[in-house]
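[Automated response] Your request has been received and processed.

Submitted sequence:
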Amino acid sequence: MPVVSTEAMSLFLDGVSHQLSADEHAVMVLDQAGWHGAIHLRIPDNITLVPLPSYSPELNPVERLWLYLRERHLSHRLLDDYDAIVDACCVAWNKLTPERIVSLCNYPYIKQVNL
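Generated structure:
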């Protein structure tokens, strides 16, 4: 989606909800971005949101991935418009390999919960 907002998050959750079978329930661990816990956020009954504590990037491994992308591919650049930003992000994302993602995001505790 081209924007982050409570409405966009509600649409995302609705889409995920419709992908779950009748006997499934999803638990999503989220950072505390404003739209993740907004008062008007519509959370389907088959989804539970669990917010991470504030200032705990070590509990959110993807933060290291975003940092890597910013430092190696996206910083110190001027991009002409929205499409150029999306293109640059797609190029950066597509340069990631599974090995790189694991090396950046594989905190020791993950192996204990990802059986």
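Summary generated for your ticket: The CA atoms of residues 25 and 45 lie 8 Å apart. The first strand starts at residue 26 and ends at 30.
If you did not submit this request, please reply to this message.
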